[in-house]
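step=encode ok
step=design start
structure_in=
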């Protein structure tokens, strides 16, 4: 699946250990969070911020982008860590990676 992704800046596949992001996510999500109790697999990250792309297993949605807080504690507010869900890979590419890429390129050009 990751091999099928044509990554666009600032998104890219991981060059670090994926499990560290999964452990951080599991340590942050509280019982009211949409990803609580769900198994995830890290696929990539946005290198200009702390957004991580996760594949979500056995769920009505397949992907989630999570802005990890690195707070070293479970978040009590279900809004954190901030999470956007995507139905499938096409949904994420169309509604997240591609718009992020165009904004990133414009910001780089016109700073």
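sequence_out=
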């Amino acid at each position: 699946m990751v091999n099928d992704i044509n990554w666009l800046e600032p998104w890219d596949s991981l060059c670090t250990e994926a499990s560290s992001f999964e452990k951080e996510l599991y340590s942050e999500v509280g019982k009211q969070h949409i990803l609580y109790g769900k198994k995830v697999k890290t696929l990539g990250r946005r290198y200009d911020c702390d957004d991580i792309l996760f594949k979500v297993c056995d769920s009505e949605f397949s992907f989630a982008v999570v802005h990890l807080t690195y707070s070293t504690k479970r978040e009590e507010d279900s809004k954190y860590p901030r999470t956007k869900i995507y139905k499938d890979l096409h949904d994420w590419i169309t509604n997240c990676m591609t718009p992020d890429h165009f904004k990133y390129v414009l910001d780089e050009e016109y700073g």
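step=design ok
step=annotate ok -> The beta strands are 11-13, 40-46, 51-56, 63-67, 82-86.
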